[in-house]
Design goal:
By secondary structure, this protein is mainly α. It has five helices and two strands; from the N terminus they run ααααββα.
Length: 126
């Protein structure tokens, strides 16, 4: 009888340990590493080639807000925000983040601006 209880407890412990690691694997698979996301890679390449990093950093407010602050503000909004924010990147503006004027980028295509916005929104805190 003692032996049966010990075997049952040992089997239960093994299943409990195995179950938690599979849940962790499932959770990490769902969230994934955003740096492997094609939107991240494409947007990062475009941001790096632009003058955006003069006024914005990922986690630091410079002249403009940090990319992370932008992502945290707009990251949960519908996908239509991407087009709107891309328009702001192209036309420039002021007022949303204070009175500092964001330089317009009229030579940037809508598609490239949207790719940059998608990259920024992927930086949202989880």
């Amino acid at each position: 009888m003692k032996r049966s209880i010990i075997v049952f407890v040992a089997a239960s412990l093994l299943m409990a340990c195995g179950g938690s690691s599979s849940k962790e694997k499932t959770a990490s698979t769902k969230t994934g590493d955003v740096s492997q996301n094609p939107d991240y890679q494409n947007g990062l390449a475009l941001v790096t080639k632009s003058d955006c990093l003069t006024c914005h950093k990922i986690d630091e407010k410079v002249t403009g807000p940090s990319y992370r602050d932008i992502a945290n503000k707009y990251g949960d909004m519908p996908d239509t925000i991407i087009s709107h924010l891309a328009g702001k990147v192209i036309s420039g503006g002021t007022g949303t983040w204070g009175q500092v004027f964001m330089t317009p980028h009229p030579n940037l295509s809508q598609a490239d601006a949207e790719a940059m916005v998608k990259y920024i929104l992927l930086l949202k805190n989880k």
